[in-house]
Amino acid sequence: MIVRDESLRMAKLLNILIVDDESGSRTGLAGMVKAWGMNAETACNGEEALEKLEHYPADVVVTDLNMPRMDGYELLRNLRDRGDMPPTIVVTGFGSVETGIRAVHEMGAYWFVEKPVQPAMMQALLRRAAVHNVLGREKRTLERQLSYKGSLGEMVGNSARMQEIFALLQQAGPSKACVLISGESGTGKELVARTLHMLSPRHNGPFVAINCAALPETLIESELFGHEKGSFTGASERRAGCFEVAQHGTLLLDEIGEMPALTQAKLLRILEDSKVRRLGGKTEFEVDVRVVAATNKVPDDAVRGGSLREDLYYRLNVFHIHLPPLRDRKDDIVAICESLISDLNKKHDTRVSDLSPQVVEAFQRHSWPGNIRELRNALERAVIITGEGTVPISALPVNFQTRPAPLLAVGVAAGSESPMPSSGGAPESLNVPIGTTVEEAEKGLILRTLEHTKNNKTRAAEILGISLKTLHNKLKEYGKDAA
Fold first, then answer.
1. pTM above 0.70, yes or no
2. Could you tell me which CATH number the domain at 157-324 has?
3. In terms of DSSP H, where are the helices of 306-423?
């Protein structure tokens, strides 16, 4: 969401990095910056500035141009080439206006000022540059969303099915109606619920999630409705339940089909009259909570099986949002990965840019039984291993690195004494006579595959689904590893 008020943009303390080889100028400006309520860090040249930026998230850089070791021009060039250049204000000596203009136009600096620095002008420039930085980040976010051909909050998807879900979320979000979200484990049901909350007039209120399957039957009502002191053994004080905690907000009941039948009946009554009574309480009190439920079961099957009350199902199912498994929306994988990489870079302080074609192919080939949760886990490991640049196939878990071997036709030819390539069959076929041992069949398959790959051992190992080291060991056994 774009921040529209400049005071909100400046809600956090600004981080300013001051780069100057003159100690007096450097410390003097840092003192003024701190007096204006901003954070200040200093560096004596461009090299030290780049080192500081590895750990100090500067909103604005103020730099001199003439410095030893690495001057301001080289610093600007490095920042520009890294692709994450913060707004940079260049400080020039008296009479160096042309130099300052060159730094702005050629090197991408935000502005320039002449020494001695006028405090009021510098303070205004710092705040304007910081706003410029925020606007730039927001623009890049919007451009990324547009490039996805559709995104909603943290949800990303190019597929027609996801576009339908986005449209439904935008319709259901502002309403007070209950929503039932279904989908396999790991498809992002809680993310959908959070998106509904952010799209609703309740977005400033709390979002509370409870997993009905994770709580024993004896505790779930206390968690949901709260309890009074002494209402049961161990109830040493009054406790608010999820409905109270979520007042004026949204309550997600995850795995609703695992909720005990008696609790489902009480929940239905609360949905009907918006009143809750704590366990052991004598009076009811009103609650203003929007309820969103989620299940990894097919809702109709859950009703027929008796795990979900039919009347509760109809009460929850005002809007029904079904999330398809990742295997049915593989067109979205690249867009999802781009969004996840951005988040993971922030989490692990990495600079990964994209995926190699081999990784994309492996991800498209995978069946994703764990859905987006599995994708995130695999990608998180790869981002940490890669550190920066493009994720190679070697950074993925082993099961992603092995290509499935093409199917080689195997026939049975009686009368032969050894497994040999068929002279009359297709080039990919291998005839294995009855009575051939496993070792002999394996040898024939390996040698035939090497012949097919024109002795490319790496490619042969990929086709056979074995490591290159194993292939070399086998060839050594056969006395054919010299080639």
1. no
2. 3.40.50.300
3. 310-316, 333-348, 357-365, 371-386, 398-401
